Amino acid sequence: FEQVEVLRGPQGTLYGRNTPAGIVHFRSVRPNEEFDANVSASYGSFGTAVLDGAVGGAMADGVSARGSLSFRRRDDWVDNSFNNTELGSYEDLAGRVQVLIEPSDAFSALLNVHGRSYEGTSTLFRANVLSTGSNDLNSNFDRDRVSYNGGGGNEQAYDQLGGSGTLSFDMGNLTLTSISAYETLDGRSRGDIDGGVAGVGPGFIPFDADTQDSIDDLTQFTQEIRLASDEGAFNWQAGVFYFDSDLTVSTVGAGFPPLATLNHTNTSWAVFGQGAYEVSDRLTLSAGVRYTDDEKDLRGVITPGPVSVSVSDEQVSWDLSAVYAMSDDANLYARIASGFRAPTIQGRDVAFFNPPSVATSETIQSYEAGFKSDLFDRRARLNGA
Fold first, then answer.
1. Residue 230 forms beta bridges with which residues?
2. Most buried in the list 60, 75, 264, 381, measured by CB within 10 Å?
3. How far is residue 179's CA from residue 94's CA, in Å, rounded to a whole number?
4. With pLDDT > 90 as the criterion, what percentage of the chain qualifies?
């Protein structure tokens, strides 16, 4: 990564819904014309291996590219004493190719294609390893051993592919940016979810349970267009954002037809604006506002009958802040901000013949003030909030 930002919430004005606690923002290394390459590898017990690498540089005049690869694997290391098999292995391969096209100083296009393929053992459930009233593991827990008569080997596999395009137009005092992204995913995960053998243990297990959950198809599309100005004492940006998601999931019990097949769609759009004004060399004021409209629908067929649930909400998030620099090494700040988490539908319980549950929107109002300072030529830091 080129940079990692940890931003305290709420961050609804620029980053939208579902950020009341803040965000962790990862910025990938962009392609540039200078050649660079790196590789790292490690090997450990249970055949654990890690290989990461990247290479980039100029491809032609005004065109640069960067490719990166990540591979992880591990051997089986958990014994299944019921049928003398082993579990716990996995292989995880991910890659990304970026191409940066800069035909002039006024236009650039960053194209990104990435994918991931994962195969391995799904979560290993362990029955009755916590005693009632305690968080401590008891004698039923054996890290290296389970006893499963179901789960079909607890196999798990997922494949993901996506891409994005960031187009930037420099129009003098203004910059127009368009970001389009598309993601797809499918996969499945099966397990012996009773964590043992009914009537045998460990502990009391009333019945055997073997189920498979699968993401039959997931597609997501996002589009953001924003206009920004970074000239003079007043800097601002404003834009629109659109999100569309379509997800189909199913739950299957071993030897039975699907217990549930559900389709979940989510459409959301927003308009936003943010600005900062340098009142003086020491004082900066910032303000922002965002309007969000969010709609979710759950449709499907379960063993008892059809399911149909819809939720929606619209909210305004805003923030107002001030930063005063007392010196080059100390400042005072204050911030008032609001945010919200959009309503959600939880459909997992329909596999157990219960209706879907709905969580309404959550809103937050935050007030913060404090100071930050560096002392002794930045050998020490003293902050308070």
1. 235
2. 264
3. 22
4. 85
